[in-house]
Amino acid sequence: MERCQESDVAAEPAPAPTSDWSPLAHPVFRALWTASALSYTGFEIRNYAAPLLMEDFHQPFHLLEGMKQYAFAASTLPIPLLVLFAGALADRVDRRKLLIVTHVWMMLAAAALGVLTIANMMTPWMLLAFLFVIGAGYAMMNPTLLAVLPGLVDPSELKSAMALNSVNMNVARVMGPAIGGLVIVAVAGREPYYVGKGLAFLATALSLVGVVVVLTKWKPAPRDSAAPAESVLASAWKGVHYAFTSPRLLQINARIFLFMVCAGILPTTCAVICKQTPALMGEAGASYLMVSFGVGALVGVYRMQGLMRRFGVERVVVIGTIVCGFAILGVAEMTSVYVGCIAMFFAGFAWVMIPTNFNIATQSAVPAWIKGRVMGVYVLVLWGSMALGSLIFGRLADSVGQRSSLFAAGVGVLVGSIAIIWIRLVPRQIERV
């Protein structure tokens, strides 16, 4: 059962869907997509509120800055630590039950974090512990959800389904901080400073309820494959081996790395540039830029299928990479929020087409029996590339400044766009959509 060759995966793509929104015609996908939109927004509310709460602990400045970095690390560190294990588990157990367990796990942790914060019982190290626990749940959930989604739609609708999932994440990046800010501001001055943050964490917990309800009601068809006989560790290693010995997956992972190692720093770096430049309106300017990024992503989703049908996947991804590279250069050189918003709009427009097609290419190249494990590798490569890029360009920023570092990242994205000459995302025989 465990032996399978790449030829097991369909070599020809199915006909293009009649509508970019056609996956929403499937009741289970529509319900899970809607619930996931709320949960992604909840995660972003948590990401917004946690650093603000850390600032409220009145640490010495040098220690405060370190603790804020620890807060980010506590949320993201579980991904490289657990995602391969999560992928192996997703291929061994009932994926629906695993998703229910992970969402309940995160919901309870977020609720406890909110209650303890409102009760003024939270400490910096307790906050880090809760962020790690919630991050661990996210790491366990992500590859499982990616393995489940293709089974909820027709094969011809996979591209649209992945694009709609990207819509959720990009809208959440905009709506999460906005909602979190409204919750905190709504009680500011009337309640102690920590109550607003606690309510934001409770909103995160509440946002996960919908996914649990949808998954509880969903009754999927039994999966064909039996659980692997080897240990979870051996099973995870088999997924890594498959991902890095499959020629097609090697090419896909190389393209993911080349793009994300440079482009992944854009959201955080543009916010830092805004805060360092009075003319860019500080946090308000950063919010405007992220809204523009989200709007661009929405327009990109609307146009993506038509562009791919007309030009082919490879050309769209390469052109999108070039557009994104020049947009990053524009953000690095922006002298006003208006210029930055235009650049971020084009960055968002191009961005949604690039990682979305990385996801689709990976899904299309992997048979069902090992999909959870390979999607775990996909998540690891994606996040690992961004983490490495943050380290490289963060060190560069220490020497030459944030703007020059981001400019170098934009140049790196443009240079990476020539990878099509040697590293193709889609085999030539199935390039046309």
From TrEMBL:
InterPro entries: MFS_dom (IPR020846), MFS_trans_sf (IPR036259), TM_effector (IPR010290)
Positions of the Major facilitator superfamily (MFS) profile domain: 28-428
GO cellular component, one term: plasma membrane
Molecular function via GO: transmembrane transporter activity
Cellular location(s): Cell membrane
Gene3D superfamilies: MFS general substrate transporter like domains (1.20.1250.20)
Keyword Membrane: yes
Keywords of the record: Cell membrane, Membrane, Transmembrane, Transmembrane helix, Transport
Pfam family, one: MFS_3
CDD domains to which the protein is assigned, alphabetical: MFS_MefA_like
Membrane topology, from the record: Multi-pass membrane protein
Transmembrane segments: 70-91, 98-119, 125-149, 170-188, 194-215, 256-274, 286-304, 311-331, 337-354, 375-394, 406-426
PANTHER family noted in UniProt: INTEGRAL MEMBRANE EFFLUX PROTEIN-RELATED (PTHR23513), STAPHYLOFERRIN A TRANSPORTER (PTHR23513:SF11)
Protein name, per record: Major facilitator superfamily (MFS) profile domain-containing protein
